[in-house]
């Protein structure tokens, strides 16, 4: 997640960059291979930086499997305005909550190199928010979002 200045954030203007939706336009030329994933993350990071520069809270919602790409995005912004959220969620929960059917397509071998199935994921070492989930006890997406909002409020990015 990229954020603009603290004063601008208090207005709470937001935009969500959804990784899957961006693959229909900006990143339609990319597949799920490591080289293309790196391009995808870099492009989304650059777009998020533009939104943050305009004073919006930019939520980049995508799978970012490699630490190096996440670190590169962090370097695009002032470190205090880049907030990385790690959804530490078991694979079976991800598959059960997959509204776009990407995991099913991967299991059917229609997508290759998909994170967590046939490509690795490198957990973050320096994220600001960790949302821990177990297969038998996992918060709802709304509850997870509430945790992020609570962090933003507690750290002065949002006001009630």
In terms of topology, how is this protein built?
Blueprint: H1 6-9, E1 14-18, H2 19-22, H3 34-53, E2 57-61, H4 67-76, E3 85-88, H5 91-96, H6 102-107, E4 129-132, H7 141-154
Enzyme class: transferase
EC number: 2.7.1.25
Keywords: ATP-binding, Kinase, Nucleotide-binding, Transferase
3D structure, described in words:
The chain has helices at residues 6-9, 19-22, 34-53, 67-76, 91-96, 102-107, 141-154, and strands at 14-18, 57-61, 85-88, 129-132. The chain is an alpha/beta fold. It has a single domain (6-142), classed as 3-Layer(aba) Sandwich (Rossmann fold), CATH 3.40.50. The strands form two sheets. Strands 1-2 form a two-stranded parallel sheet. Strands 3-4 form a two-stranded parallel sheet. The two termini are 20 Å apart. The model is unreliable at 3-10 (pLDDT under 50). Pathway: Sulfur metabolism; hydrogen sulfide biosynthesis; sulfite from sulfate: step 2/3. Its EC number is 2.7.1.25. One of its GO terms (biological process) is sulfate assimilation. Catalyzes the synthesis of activated sulfate.
Tell me the number of structural domains. 1
| Count of runs of 4 or more consecutive helical residues | 7
User: Which CATH-level-2 architecture?
Assistant: 3-Layer(aba) Sandwich
Helical percent range? 40-55%
What's the helix-strand series?
HEHHEHEHHEH
Q: Indicate the mean pLDDT.
A: 86
Task: From the 3D structure, determine the CATH topology.
Answer: Rossmann fold
* Rg estimate, integer Å: 16 Å
Q: What portion of the residues fall into strands of 2 or more residues? A: 5-15%
**What separation lies between the terminal Cα atoms?**
20 Å
Oligomer: single chain
Envelope shape: globular
CATH structural class: Alpha Beta
* Low-confidence residue ranges: 3-10
| Major sheet details | 2 strands, parallel
Q: Can you say what the CATH homologous superfamily is?
A: P-loop containing nucleotide triphosphate hydrolases
- Specify the structural class: alpha/beta
| Strand neighbour order, sheet with most strands | 1-2
**Annotation, overall tally of beta strands:** 4
């Amino acid at each position: 997640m990229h954020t603009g200045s603290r004063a601008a954030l208090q207005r709470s203007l937001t935009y969500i960059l959804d990784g899957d939706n961006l693959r229909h336009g900006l990143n339609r030329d990319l597949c799920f291979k490591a080289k293309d994933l790196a391009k995808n993350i870099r492009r989304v990071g650059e777009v998020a930086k533009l939104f943050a520069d305009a004073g919006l809270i930019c939520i980049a919602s995508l799978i970012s499997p490699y630490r190096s790409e996440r670190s590169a995005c962090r370097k695009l912004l002032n470190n205090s305005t880049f907030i990385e959220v790690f959804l530490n969620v078991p694979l079976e929960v991800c598959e059960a909550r997959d509204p776009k059917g990407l995991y099913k397509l991967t299991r059917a071998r229609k997508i290759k190199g998909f994170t967590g199935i046939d490509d690795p994921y490198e957990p973050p070492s320096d994220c600001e928010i960790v949302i821990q989930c177990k297969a038998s006890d996992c918060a709802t997406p709304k509850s997870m979002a509430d945790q992020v909002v609570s962090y933003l409020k507690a750290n002065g990015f949002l006001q009630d």
